[in-house]
Write a structure and sequence with these properties.
Layout (H helix, E strand, L loop, with lengths): L10 H10 L7 H11 L1 H8 L3 E3 L4 E2 L5 H41 L15 H14 L3 H9 L7 H4 L5 H10 L3 H9 L5 H19 L35 H14 L5 H12 L20 H5 L1
Length: about 300
C-alpha cells in the first residue's frame, strides 16, 4: 500500500481534466464556478454512471456538464421533497403513538417497563431522557420544573423525539392491541409499520445529511406488504434496494394522512423537469401507467 501522492488541482485544471475525458463543457467559466461551490468529488458521484470505463474515467458520447448539474439539482430537490413527506409521516405517527399509549396505558406509559421489551427499554428510555434534557422547548421545561416524573407525559415527550427513536419505541412496544391500534390508522399490520418506520428513519438521515440519494441502494429495506394496503403488494419491486419502494410507502402514507396532497403530481413534474434515468432509482419502465400513479390522481 503506497501513500497518497496526488497534488490538489485548481478548478480550471478540473474543467480541463473533465474535457480531456470526453465531457462536453460549453461554458468553462460556469463549470469552474459550480466546481468551486459543489466540490469536484461531490459532483463525481453523479457522473460515475456516465463513464464508459471507470479505470480511465472516459465518458460516454454526448455527456455534458449541464446534464450532470441537472442530475445534481434533481437529487437535491428530491431529498427536500422526500424530507417534506417524511415530516408529515413522522408527526402523524408520533401523534398516534402518544394518543394510544396514553389512553390505553396512562400518561406516563413510556415509564412503564411492563409494556416494553425489557431487553431494550432501559436504553431507549435513556435516549429519550437525553433528548428531553437537550430540549429548549418551553413546554418541556415547564413539565420538568413542575412535576416529579422522570419524563413529561407521552404527548409532550413525543414532540422532541427523533424519527429513529420513535421507530425504536414502537419496535419495543409489546401489547399487540396497542401496536395494532396505531398501525390500523394507516391500514397496515403492526410488523409492517415497524419495518417501514425503521426504513424511513434511515432514509430521513440520508436526506438530512445531504448524501447522494437518487440512486441509493438502501442497507435497510422495507418489508413488502402481503395483503394490505390492497394497492401495494402488486406494486412493490420485490428484492429491490432502490428508492421506488420508498416512494410507494410515502404515497400510501400521504394518501392516508394528507387528503388533497400533490405528492404524485409534484414528483412527476420533478422527474419530467430533470429527466433522470429512473431505472437507476428502481422505477419500472411502465411506472407512469401503473394504477398507483393514476387512480388517486384522477379522483382528486
Amino acid at each position: 500500500m503506497s501513500p497518497f501522492s496526488k497534488p490538489p488541482t485548481t478548478h480550471a485544471q478540473q474543467v480541463a481534466l473533465l474535457k480531456s475525458r470526453g465531457m462536453k463543457i460549453d461554458d468553462p467559466a460556469q463549470a469552474e464556478f459550480y466546481l468551486s461551490h459543489l466540490n469536484y468529488y461531490r459532483l463525481a458521484g453523479y457522473w460515475l454512471g456516465f463513464e464508459v470505463d471507470h479505470s480511465t474515467h472516459t465518458f460516454q458520447e454526448g455527456v455534458t456538464f449541464s446534464r450532470i448539474l441537472s442530475l445534481y439539482n434533481f437529487d437535491r430537490q428530491l431529498r427536500l421533497f422526500v424530507l417534506g413527506a417524511i415530516e408529515r409521516v413522522e408527526v402523524s405517527i408520533r401523534s398516534q403513538w402518544a394518543y394510544h399509549l396514553s389512553h390505553l396505558h396512562g400518561p406516563h406509559a413510556h415509564l412503564d417497563s411492563g409494556i416494553h421489551d425489557p431487553r431494550y427499554w432501559p436504553d431507549v428510555r435513556a435516549k429519550l431522557m437525553e433528548e428531553v434534557s437537550r430540549s429548549d422547548e418551553i413546554f418541556i421545561k415547564h413539565f420538568s420544573q413542575t412535576y416529579s416524573e422522570d419524563l413529561p407525559p407521552v404527548w409532550a415527550a413525543c414532540e422532541v423525539m427523533s424519527l429513529g427513536l420513535l421507530s425504536r419505541w414502537y419496535s419495543i412496544l409489546q401489547p399487540m392491541t396497542t401496536r395494532s391500534a396505531i398501525s390500523r390508522i394507516y391500514d397496515v399490520d403492526e410488523m409492517l409499520l415497524q419495518s417501514w418506520l425503521h426504513h424511513l428513519s434511515l432514509v430521513r438521515n440520508l436526506c438530512a445529511h445531504h448524501a447522494r440519494f437518487w440512486n441509493s441502494e438502501f442497507t435497510i429495506t422495507p418489508v413488502r406488504p402481503r395483503s394490505k394496503p390492497a394497492s401495494l403488494p402488486s406494486e412493490f419491486m420485490t428484492g429491490s434496494r432502490k428508492l421506488y419502494n420508498t416512494i410507494l410507502i410515502l404515497l400510501h402514507f400521504m394518501d392516508t394522512i394528507t387528503p388533497g396532497h400533490t405528492f404524485r403530481g409534484d414528483l412527476k413534474k420533478l422527474i419530467s423537469l430533470h429527466e433522470p434515468p429512473v431505472n437507476r432509482m428502481g422505477f419500472p419502465s411502465n411506472w407512469l401507467d401503473r394504477p398507483i400513479w393514476q387512480e388517486i390522481e384522477t379522483a382528486r
